[in-house]
Design goal:
single chain, about 210 residues, mainly alpha, about 70% helix
């Protein structure tokens, strides 16, 4: 990330703290400002920060993305501001923070809570991550039926990790009836998006 040292130091002292307001940016506008800020464009960064301080949920989430890895405490604070307004992407990011210990202690139960909130809005990345928690039984009761249902929902939205997972479940018959045709179909879809496991499988089974 081509940002200046002073840019990074900013995160250590920034206070987030404005009253919550409805989003003023569109999600696309926030994404564009974020991409420009990542490239070191100060004007885009300043605009994104100003909108985030003014309560814009999209901007708050993107500020969290910019901070993550450099100031995780600031990242989770921004995510929480956005997630509390109901933004599914930020709720997913809150789940990531608790699952991985970004800016907070690892707390799988809390991660599941945030993933559930994001899943309720149909967010594919949260569907996949929560599905994986149900598959392993990590801090939730192990339930392959729920896991596969979540994988399918994410896969149908084009999530390559879910497509790969669903495909291999069909091949192995774990929690589902074996169906090699469906299995390879999902694996090919995942491979087309660059999923490593799917690509390795297809390379070995030409």
């Amino acid at each position: 990330m081509n940002l200046t040292t002073s840019f990074f130091l900013f995160f250590a002292s920034v206070l987030l703290f404005s009253s919550i307001a409805s989003a003023k940016l569109t999600e696309q506008q926030a994404n564009s400002l974020y991409a420009n800020a990542q490239s070191g464009d100060k004007r885009s960064f300043d605009t994104l920060l100003a909108e985030a301080k003014n309560g814009d949920a999209f901007a708050q989430n993107k500020m969290g993305n910019l901070a993550r890895g450099y100031d995780n405490a600031a990242a989770i604070a921004w995510y929480r501001k956005s997630a509390d307004q109901g933004y599914a992407n930020a709720q997913y990011n809150m789940g990531l923070c608790y699952y991985n210990g970004f800016g907070t202690a690892i707390n799988y139960a809390e991660a599941a809570v945030w993933y559930h909130k994001s899943v309720a809005q149909g967010y594919d990345k949260a569907q996949y991550n929560l599905g994986t928690m149900y598959k392993s039984g990590k801090c939730v009761q192990q339930d392959l039926v729920k896991a596969l249902s979540l994988y399918r929902k994410a896969a149908e939205q084009g999530n390559m990790h879910a497509q790969s997972a669903l495909g291999f479940h069909y091949l192995s018959g774990q929690g589902i009836e074996v169906n090699s045709v469906l299995g390879e179909s999902w694996i090919k879809k995942a491979a087309a998006q660059g999923d490593e496991r799917a690509l390795k499988y297809l390379a070995k089974n030409k």
